[in-house]
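Hi F.,

I've been meaning to write this up properly since the lab meeting, where we talked about keeping a consistent format for the predictions we share between groups. The idea is simple: the sequence comes first, exactly as it goes in, then the structure tokens exactly as they come out, then a line or two of notes. No screenshots and no reformatting. I'm using this chain as the first example so we have something concrete to point to.
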Amino acid sequence: MNFPVQAITLDLDDTLWPFAPIGARIDQVLYEWMLQHSPATAAMYPVAAMRELRERSFHDNPHLHYDLSALRRLTLSEALEKSGADPALLEPAYEAFYAARNQVEFYPDAMDALARIAARVPVAALSNGNADLQRIGVSHHFTFQLGSREHGAAKPAASIFHAACERLAVAPAHVLHVGDHAEMDVVGAMQAGLRGCWINREEHPWTHPSLQPDLQFDTLTGLADWLDANASAQHA
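Output, unedited:
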């Protein structure tokens, strides 16, 4: 398929890097931090118990699903309170979490492909997560970063896609959203009037009954190659 792309919005977690190893590291880092700074909290909330508390906080606070940082603080605050710890430990504990959260290991293809893509069209990061591209060291590839927390609503809400298009000053029909999640990224973007590109590294089957992704690749390199091959269409 050949169509003009004037800008790209790009998901982060599980598109540029896998999140599972980050999540596992966060759990361990927080446990070790609590062991050092609040042993009573570490004793009451070892890794599995803290994970259970976090999942319950997520389930009990759907109004905060767009703000994963607020949910994390809520979890840490409850753990500190229930274990009788000093509430002043909340922000230092959050910083320990956030430092670990931004230690990412890119997919082998991602960095080179991102540089190639960003050299061709403006790229905006569009994420429901709370990664910090400056801390990670790749903000120079992006025009801006728009998170669901900053926007006030999460993908697949049309408003976050439209807000990104407005900041890019490009009509939705000429913006390609790229991400790993079939519903939140591809279907959400296409229903908002953008083009949708599915980065399907795990070769999952496509299950939406009526929509098909405009593009589908098993690596980000596939998209970079497509942009190179269709360079003439980008100026149509």
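Notes:
DSSP finds eleven helices and six strands in the chain.
The longest strand covers residues 123-127.

If this format works for you, I'll send the rest the same way.

G.
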